[in-house]
Amino acid sequence: MSEKEKDSKSAWQTAQVGQLLIKEEVPVKAYILSVLHSPEAADEVFQQVAVIALEKADDFELGTNFRTWAMSIGRFACLEYIRKRSGKAFAASELIDMLAEESGASQEDPHQLMAALHECLEQVPTDSRRVLFLRYVEGKPVDKIANFISRTLQGTYAFIKRLKAKIRECVERKTGFSVVPFEEGAL
Asked: Using 50, 70 and 90 to split pLDDT, how confident is the model at 86?
């Protein structure tokens, strides 16, 4: 194949990916929004997803699931967005990773997993959600959280473990997926 033919094929592939991006914009943005909970952030991240998808258009195999491919790019773009905004590694990405990769579910339903996680977190009492936020979003050490909520260190570890188990069970009920729990050291 000549260089001109390769360039022509690449341009055609990029155009196809561009059309698929337009077609799948709503579900991909919905997935991003379910992770970031900010319409402005979702728009910004979707633009980044579009740029990456077009740059990697030759990597996409036409005829396969474009939405899954774009959501995978979106997941990594969300994590990068969060890391840049927080100035440190975003510990809650462990939860996203657990649901998206270790659940045994296909990558075709990351939105279903995130929607279930969101619903399940909404059912957690506000004070308990605050504990999870301190641990997994702000990355606070468990001993600091124990002092903040006036519990012993062991009691706080047990409390967080129970919260995670309840959320995992809730996500499993809502999705039918088997979600692998965090490793013990991941508290």
From this structure: low
